[in-house]
Amino acid sequence: MDFETAKLDLKTFLLNASTEEINEIIDDVHPVDVLEIIKNSSEDDAKIILEKLSNEFIGDLMDEEEDENRYEFLAQFSDYRQKDILVEMSSDEITDFIGTLDKKEKEDVLSKLSVEDKEEIHDLLQYDPKTAGGIMATAFIRIREHKTIQKTLIYLQEHAEDAEMAYYLYVIDKEDHLRGVVGLRNIVASPFDTLISEIVNENIISINVNDSQEVVAQVFSKYGYVMLPVVDDDNVIKGVVT
Asked: Is the pTM of this model over 0.85?
């Protein structure tokens, strides 16, 4: 089967399958392919497909859309659904999106965010978009060094789904200074009464909020990590870059 035939089959499936059937396979479909199908479809077909897609996947489509088209893409949904879609997007994605808008569009999008999200986005917009602070995400797992493994596992069950990546937990003190990192494997392999401070790896590489994207890329290339913590000049963790 060639690529064009595969896309045609995917479009047929998206048009005719139920929402439940689509949700079962959508994680295996790249958002770019769905976005291309939508763009090459009639207005009616595009509407049918978009109505069946989850808000989370619409957020993925938003991230793949060209900067100049994102606001128009979002605006085709009701105000109520726009709010739900924005909730599913990470803080860095929304910040990038807002950074491309004019004043009126920016105010419109911000009006659909919660007070907490507005404050978070406002903080991110203070950073130069070409620095680590400008590209970092603020949804990550941080844990106090005095917590036990049992309490950490309970915390993970409640919050891991909202994090950028949950493979690593960043260990902090009570002032949010970065103390080290703990891998998920170490968490599940340790007795429940073990303190995080007993298994933390203090040999951690971090990047500063003001480091350029070039410096960030060099650090990723040198160490081969999939995620790096971002700290300020006082070593307080502010976010992560993946």
From this structure: no
